[in-house]
Amino acid sequence: IADEIAEAGAGIAVEPDPDSIAQGLKKLLSDNARWASMSGKAAALAREKYSVGAMGERLVRLYEEIVDREP
Q1: Which three-class secondary structure string do you get for 2-22?
Q2: Are 64 and 36 in contact (CB under 8 A)?
Q3: Are 40 and 49 within 8 A, CB to CB?
Q4: How many CB atoms lie within 10 A of CB 38?
Q5: How do the pLDDT tens digits run along the chain, 71 residues long?
Q6: CA–CA separation, 48 vs 39, rounded Å?
Q7: What distance in Å separates the CA atoms of residue 54 and residue 48, rounded to the nearest whole number?
Q8: Which residues contact 35 (CB under 8 A, 6 or more apart)?
Q9: pLDDT of amino acid 2
Q10: How far apart are CA 17 and CA 5, in angstroms?
Q11: Using the 8-state DSSP alphabet, how is residue 71 labeled?
Q12: Distance from the CA of 67 to the CA of which of 4, 20, 21, 39 falls in 20 to 30 A?
């Protein structure tokens, strides 16, 4: 998911350690325009790829693929 977030410009990816997380937060908190832009892009990404409807569509496609593979 980090790659999708970075590609969409919806956030920044940091290493999972306290210092990296703190630095990432400081970057975002010090740049309101960047934070606002990323917030909007994050909301759009969530609606597009992770909404109930989007996840339902993925699940249906998965089931269809499984059924099509059966002999």
Answers
A1: HHHHHHHCCCCCCCCCHHHHH
A2: no
A3: no
A4: 19
A5: 889 998 999 999 899 999 999 999 999 999 999 999 999 999 999 999 999 999 999 999 999 999 998 76
A6: 14
A7: 7
A8: 28, 29
A9: 87
A10: 18
A11: -
A12: 4
In the structure encoding, which two tokens stand for residue 55, read together? 């996840």
Cβ atoms within 10 A of the Cβ of 28, count? 15
What's the pLDDT at 1? 87
**Dihedral of alpha carbons 41, 38, 7, 53, sign:** negative
CA–CA distances in Å: residue 52 to residues 5, 11, 44, 63:
18, 22, 14, 16
Residue whose C-alpha is closest to residue 4's, from 53, 35, 58, 50: 50
